[in-house]
Known about the structure:
The chain has 14 helices and twelve strands. By secondary structure, the chain is of the alpha/beta class. It has two domains: 8-248, Type I PLP-dependent aspartate aminotransferase-like (Major domain) (Aspartate Aminotransferase, domain 2), CATH 3.40.640.10; 254-383, Aspartate Aminotransferase, domain 1, CATH 3.90.1150.10. The strands form two sheets. Strands 1-7-6-5-4-2-3 form a seven-stranded mixed beta sheet, with helices on both faces. A five-stranded mixed beta sheet has the order 8-9-12-11-10, with helices on one face.
Amino acid sequence: MKTDPHxxxxxxxxxxxxxxxxxxxxxxxxxQSATYASDEASSYDEIRxxxxxNSPNHRVLHRKLAAVAGGEDAVVTASGMAxxxxxxxxxxxxxxxxxxxxxxYGGTHTFLTxxxxxxxxxxxxxxxxxxxxxxxxxxxxxRLVYVETMSNPLLGVPDLEAVVRFARERxxxxxxxNTFASPVxxxxxxxxxxxxxxxxxxxxxGHSDIVAGCVIGQRELIRPIARxxxxxxxxxxxxxCFLLHRGMKTLALRVREQNATGQxxxxxxxxxxxxxxxxxxxxxxxxxxxxxxxLFAGCGGVLSFDLVAPExxxxxxxxxxxxxxxxxxxxxxxxxxxxxxxxxxxLEPEERxxxxxxxxxxxxxxxxEAAEDLCADFEGALQSL
Length: 385
């Protein structure tokens, strides 16, 4: 729980920094060293060695992430999937069972349904807005529940308050992937979740130039995750730590701009005759709009839409001049992609269909360009279909 008196934009700049500036440097220097001179450590995890995630760049990031999200501790990883898989492997063992919402990022879905069972870990996928179905899927071996703040790419919002109650009443660990919202728009730990994970590649860094992840939450849960990470070796490089540290300082400014632009573009697309449906929680037409308005400070910069003519979707991407056809999200530039060909390409077409991800679905991740320029870019591309 956040206890300091500062607003998030202040913590993003000042929280976790070294108490005495190194050689007077205003910006924390990059420590490009694999090992450090030190006294004998009291445990393996305390050895000053880069793979153990304890360089000065790592330590400052851990403190800053914890302060910004309102957690007790944090650990950074080499990717978002490294954060997710390491957390789950640290907290679950062979014979354990978990519940997860049924529309997840493709990499997470594949890990839970294909890799985890090989390790003796089973999972039931359940609707995020139907907690009664969670009760039916509960087993004596259930240890954990896993959800995303907003699902990728359909922007579904689980009943997050009910998820927290469900987990607490049954003494289950609750984990949420908060990548799409970021701590600016939603603060899971303050709402009762035990852990939040991020692909820090996205909004936290915000410049599309590194791959990173993190886990934030209760210290008693972060410790085993960090220890697991030390053995799996998914360490974030110091230079990537430096860039993530730098990128986080503008997080609040970027996300608030992307909130406004995402809303504007979603409204424009919903009114366009060539568009069949828009998925964005900020729209009154979204099935969880009221929930999103109650829980979120903003609905973020990601939306998806289906064309009236789905077969035209691949051609639309090539007709945009500002938006770049590329996977990922959260950067300063607008990116567009077809999830069927990128984030969910690893799923069979039938599985994608059950999830509502057709071949004509387009996902947009807005950057910080002017909203009117982006709307004009999409207008020109849609008119040329």
